[in-house]
Structure formats: C-alpha cells, structure tokens
Backbone:
C-alpha cells in the first residue's frame, strides 16, 4: 500500500485529498506547512508528496528542493493556484512529477497520483529486474543437504521469520538469502544487502541507520540508512558476526521495535523490514568469546540454515560444472564445452577451499582461456595450478587395489629404476645415492627383474 503525504496550509484541501486518496486505497499523511512535512518525511517512508506551491514559513519551491536533495526517489506533485502557474512550471523543471491547478479536479487528482505511483513502481521493478539479471544463479544440487535447504526455503519464505544462514565463504549464503526474498510476499520490494565485514566500525551505524547532516565529519547531507531503504522489503546482514558490540546493541533494539534514530538525529523512524543474516564464523564460539551478543543471536536465529562446503557435496560437482559451462559458453551462441571423465575425477578430487565461488571462477577461466571443446584432466591440472588437492590422492591411484607388500614392492622398483637412470646405470654411484651397499642393490635388481642397459 503506497504512502502519500499532502502538504497544504488549507485544511479543506487536506481533508478533500485525504478522502479521495483513502478511497483509492492509499495511506495518507498530512502536514499544514513545509517544515512539518519535512519532519514527517524523516520518520515515515513516503512514496509520493502532494505539495502546495504557496506555503507559510517555508515556500513550496524550497520544500521541493530539499525533498529532491534528500529523497530523490520520492515523486512530488505540485498544487498551484491561478496566480502560481509560473512557479508550478519552475517546480516541474526542478524535478516535480506534474502540477495540478486549483480548484482541484477530483478525476485529475486520481489520474495524476496513479501515474506517479505507477512510475515509481516501474522504477522499482526495473531495479529489481537489473538485480535479477545480475543474480542469475540457481541453488543447484541433489544432495540431501541441498534438498533440505530448498525445503526450508519453501516453508519459510512466505513468513516474516528471521533467518540465520551459516557456512564457509563462497558456499552461496547470499544466493539462499535472495531466493528466500524472491519467494516471499516482499519480492516486489527492495532486497538490501550490507556486508558488515567491509564497513569500518565507526561507519557501520551510519550505514545501517543513516545520519543527519553535520552529525560527524564528512556528513555533508542527510542520508538514509539500509534499514530505511529496505522498508517493506528484506535486509540481508552478511557477515553479521563482524559487527562491533555497540552496533549489535543498536541492531538488537531495531529488530525488537522496528524503530531507530539516524546518527545525530532524535526522530524515531519506523520501518517494516524482514531480517536475514549470514556469517562464516562459528557463532557459538563468538558468543563464548564475548564477541557476539547471545540475545542478538537468539533474535536472528529463528530459522537456521547451514550451507555445506563444496567438499562435502562433491556429488553435485557434475551438475554445477555443467551449469557454469553453459553460462560461460564462449562464444555465447556456440556449443557448451564438456569435461571428460578423468577431468571430472580431477575436479572432484580438489578441495575447493573457495567453494562454489572458486568453482564458478575456475570454469569461467577455462572457457575463456582454452579453445578445446573437451576439457581434459591435463587442462584442469594446468589451470588449477598450485590449487590442486592438498592430499594428492591421484598420485596413489595405482596403489588403491594393492595390498601393502605389493604396493611397497611396486614403489621400491620404481624408485630404484629412477635412481639408476639419474646415475647413468652405475651400480656403485646408485647404491651410494640410495644409502645402501652395492651387493644389496644387485639383489634388488635381480628380485624385481630390472634390466640394466650397458
């Protein structure tokens, strides 16, 4: 339901407009002068302002300028008398959506207001569309853990319950949060993300709650915070465990009351926000160490979701790789590359410390840097480079089916042959390099049937 503010010094105009707009399903606020109107804008998220051009104390043009400077996304419709048409035209040039002339035509009021609201909704949808284009990944996977995540999303998305998502970096926590928002009743409203780890401690409160002009050095104008921008939508607090304790206290209060004050401000601002938080840290350990408030944890952790690391869901790798190969096909209208069986085994053997983010970047790099249609194990090892698996299980593949004694003999034979080659098949030098007697080396050569080329 859109919220409209009527700023007019004539009580009759305020009452008429309130009645008309209320009948159309809008929520209406009124103010009798510009100062009261600007004060109300600080505490209520308004979608549209109907502004009289001639007001006491502060003229409508000055009010318009301040609205456009502080709240550029709010549309303003100017109300003008017969003698104020020039001022109304000037107002439109300053950014007003349109103007209506007194005496007001009720039909025109409804039409202009509807057009202004539709324009704002169109801008909002365009923003959401741009976000959806940028965020084109899906929650892919068929392991039990991923299926459970999809079930939780389906059960919780339509509610306003707060959700805490845990998991290592790169596992897709933001993707889960966006999917919850997309399926919620708030999907047409903003999804606002805050990376708490990327904001200095001294700025996190301003980022979340906004600030008033002059509240600190560098605050050259009033600024709305993320809580305010997310009104009627979803606020995603990524890396929430990296917030300072003082910021945590303010977030806790804002969650409890859905009210807050901007930094340097005194007016209480009410919002309707759904909270989704995420962290890559052990939150219980953070609480035990005194770095995270337990009461905030209980507020955020209404519905917990844990996103497993990629190494614990390696069965999903073929599906994920096929998806990314399709997304990053080069050229875009050409056939998607494919990974052969040995290449897939090499990919599944990698630990993927960067999880899905690392996998996505790797697939993009391979599709750009190679013209080969089939991606082999050799190509994969080349592009992974030093990031190949730490456990190097593939080095011991040939020993997997052997018993201990057979494996020892096989390794010993290969070792002796390599040392002989390094020393030009000279028995004495090879025995010295191996730290054994020449007679022992002769015995092993006979045992393993190694032929010495003269």
Residues:
């Amino acid at each position: 339901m859109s919220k409209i503010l009527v700023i007019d010094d004539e009580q009759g105009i305020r009452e008429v407009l309130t009645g008309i707009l209320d009948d159309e399903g809008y929520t209406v606020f009124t103010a009798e002068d510009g100062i009261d109107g600007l004060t109300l804008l600080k505490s209520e998220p308004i979608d549209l302002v109907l502004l009289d051009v001639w007001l006491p104390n502060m003229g409508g043009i000055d009010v318009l300028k301040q609205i456009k400077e502080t709240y550029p996304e709010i549309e303003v419709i100017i109300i003008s008398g017969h003698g104020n048409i020039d001022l109304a035209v000037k107002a439109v040039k300053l950014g007003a959506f349109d103007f209506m002339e007194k005496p007001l035509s009720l039909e025109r009021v409804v039409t202009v207001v509807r057009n202004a609201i539709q324009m704002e909704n169109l801008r909002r949808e365009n923003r959401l569309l741009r976000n959806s284009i940028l965020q084109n990944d899906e929650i892919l996977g068929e392991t039990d853990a991923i299926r459970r995540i999809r079930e939780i999303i389906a059960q919780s998305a339509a509610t306003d319950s707060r959700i805490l998502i845990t998991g290592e970096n790169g596992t897709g926590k933001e993707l889960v949060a966006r999917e919850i928002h997309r399926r919620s009743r708030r999907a047409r409203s903003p999804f606002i993300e805050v990376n708490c780890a990327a904001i200095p401690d001294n700025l996190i409160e301003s980022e979340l709650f906004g600030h008033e002009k002059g509240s600190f050095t560098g605050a050259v104008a009033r600024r709305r915070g993320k809580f305010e921008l997310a009104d009627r939508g979803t606020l995603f607090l990524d890396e929430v465990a990296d917030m300072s304790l003082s910021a945590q206290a303010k977030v806790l209060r804002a969650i409890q009351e859905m009210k807050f004050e901007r930094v340097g401000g005194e007016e209480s601002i009410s919002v309707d926000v759904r909270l989704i938080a995420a962290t890559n840290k052990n939150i219980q350990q953070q609480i035990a160490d005194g770095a995270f408030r337990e009461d905030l944890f209980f507020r955020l952790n209404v519905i917990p979701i844990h996103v497993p690391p990629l190494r614990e869901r390696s069965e999903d790798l073929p599906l994920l790789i096929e998806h990314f190969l399709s997304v990053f096909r080069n050229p875009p209208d050409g056939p998607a590359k494919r990974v052969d069986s040995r290449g897939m085994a090499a990919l599944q053997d990698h630990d993927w410390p960067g999880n899905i983010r690392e996998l996505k970047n790797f697939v993009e790099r391979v599709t750009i840097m190679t013209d080969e249609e089939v991606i082999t194990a050799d190509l994969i090892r080349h592009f992974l480079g030093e990031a190949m698996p730490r456990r190097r299980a593939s080095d011991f593949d040939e020993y997997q089916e052997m018993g201990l004694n057979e494996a020892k003999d096989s390794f010993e034979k290969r070792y002796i042959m390599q040392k002989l080659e390094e020393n030009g098949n000279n028995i004495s030098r090879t025995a010295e390099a191996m730290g054994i007697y020449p007679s022992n080396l002769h015995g092993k050569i006979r045992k393993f049937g190694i032929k010495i080329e003269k």
